[in-house]
Design goal:
The complex is a heterodimer of chains A (78) and B (404). With 78 residues, chain A is an all-alpha fold. Chain A is 87% helix and 0% strand. Classes of the chains: A mainly alpha (78), B mainly alpha (404).
Chain lengths: 78, 404
């Protein structure tokens, strides 16, 4: 049973994302949110979305950015 | 004339009822990340669900049995518990996703967090089921769901390269990020081939008293209704591919999705997006909650029927009365509705063999269908899609879990 557990951990560790891949994903996420912010600002400026919704997107952006930055830090440590 | 009207109504409800939280989220994510490249997955899902819907309707019309009832009779109660648990669990997760979809629409409109809406929405769905009739659930919600045609209008306004979209209806290999690509492909197929769709359709056919004279209607409704419905899902993918993909925006939160209609349609697009999300998810929540009741009641031989008064089918009513608040509670926990939706869809794909193979066995049994058993084409199409989706899901889900 113990051997099986060790084998499973080794397999899972081998399949897990590399630090480089994690960093690349996090950078992509940050750049995706940069573009989202620009699109939301444009939409708000032309009155296509209400201010309340724009604020919701910005809150989501802040949360997603924090998560992506944490991933970047974690990848740097690895 | 009345049959023509039924065909038209069936096709219209197929269109209006096709889009729900799963197909909307997966198509938007796929379009944003991979452009038109995953259009083939929607096409494959449509072909598969059209075959399954046709089979479910034919089975009900010819044998006058519902699927769970026949499964229990044909395979015995022990075996029946396997699809019961698989379909029940997957449907429960999808129900929670749909409630989450309605809550998000309310959040976008009001600014009040989606968690706060979960229990009121679950209560509203329950009230509709308690007071409503089968016709109201089936036709009413789907007719209102025609608002989702806004995505088709949006897609046309964006003037997409039709040739390129059409070319992507043929499967292709990913150029980058294979794990994500295949995970999205199975999620899209899972969203299109949700078992609740054909179980609900079969129960509805029995509830409406179909007989063999309905076989033509059934074929047309299944083929045309699902195809036109699928066009709405492809329109979502096209909108996301035209608006988000060129800017490098990947959909990681639901809040990004309304932008795909805002860009082509402005403020009207924002309102139509909220209406589409709310109505489509509410309609799907009604159908899934009802299907969970059908599944249990028909499988265990209880009295069932949405047209009966609740006290006349007490255990049938009890199932949705218990499932709805529980599904609402899943959303109250604050779980990310987008992640819940996409993973529910991938799990649906994973469970396809368990839900589809017993149906195929029944569809090839002359005891139930006489001369109207399946042809080789429908057997091969459904088996192939079901097994390929399951195998890909088996590989893609752990990879995606580890990647995220």
């Amino acid at each position: 049973m113990a051997r099986l557990r060790i084998a499973l951990v080794v397999v899972l560790a081998g399949c897990g994302p590399s630090a480089a891949k994690q960093a690349a994903d996090a950078s992509e996420e940050l750049s995706s949110w940069d573009s989202t912010a620009r699109l939301v600002n444009t939409a708000q400026a032309r009155g296509a979305i209400p201010a309340g919704f724009a604020e919701q997107v910005r809150r989501a952006e802040a949360e997603a950015r924090a998560a992506a930055e944490a991933k970047l830090r974690k990848a740097a440590v690895r | 004339m009345s049959k023509l009207l039924e065909i038209a109504l069936g096709i219209v409800t197929g269109i209006g009822g096709f889009l729900e939280a799963g197909s909307l989220a997966t198509a938007a994510q796929a379009g944003a990340t991979f452009g038109f490249q995953l259009a083939w997955a929607i096409g494959l899902g449509i072909i598969c669900i059209a075959f399954l819907i046709e089979m479910a309707g034919r089975f009900a019309a010819v044998s006058r049995h519902t699927l769970p009832d026949a499964m229990r009779e044909r395979f015995g109660i022990r075996f029946f518990l396997v699809p019961l648990v698989a379909v029940g669990l997957v449907s429960f997760l999808v129900l929670a996703s749909e409630i989450g979809g309605v809550c998000l629409a309310l959040q976008f409109a009001s600014g009040i967090g989606f968690q706060w809406w979960a229990l009121p929405v679950a209560a509203l769905v329950w009230l509709f089921l308690w007071k409503g009739t089968f016709g109201m659930v089936e036709k009413g919600a789907s007719l209102l769901g025609l608002v989702t045609l806004a995505f088709v209008v949006g897609a046309f306004r964006l003037d997409p390269p039709v040739g390129q979209v059409a070319a992507r209806l043929l499967p292709s290999l990913p150029q980058q990020d294979s794990a994500k690509y295949w995970f999205m492909a199975v999620s899209i197929i899972g969203a299109s081939v949700s078992p609740y769709l054909f179980y609900f359709y079969s129960a509805g056919a029995v509830e409406d008293g179909w007989d063999v004279s309905y076989l033509g209607i059934n074929r047309l409704v299944a083929g045309l209704g699902m195809t036109f419905g699928g066009v709405v899902a492809i329109a979502v993918l096209v909108c996301a591919a035209m608006v988000l993909h060129p800017l490098g925006i990947q959909v990681s939160r639901y809040e990004q999705i309304p932008l795909i209609l805002v860009t082509p349609l402005g403020r009207t697009g924002f309102v139509l997006f909220i209406a589409s999300l709310a109505i489509a998810c509410f309609g799907a929540a009604l159908e899934i909650a009802l299907q969970l009741s059908y599944l249990a009641a028909q499988g265990f031989g209880w009295r069932w029927g949405e047209n009966l008064r609740p006290r006349e089918a007490a255990r049938f009513t009890l199932v949705y009365t218990v499932c709805l608040p529980l599904a609402g509670l899943v959303i109250v926990t604050g779980i990310d509705p987008l992640k819940l939706t996409v993973f529910s869809m991938a799990l649906t794909a994973l469970s396809l063999p368990v839900t589809v193979v017993p149906l195929l066995v029944l569809m090839n049994d002359p005891t139930y269908l006489g001369e109207r058993t399946n042809g080789w084409l429908s057997n091969a199409a459904v088996l192939a899609v079901g097994f390929v989706a399951c195998v890909v899901a088996l590989v893609a889900i752990p990879l995606q879990l580890m990647g995220s």
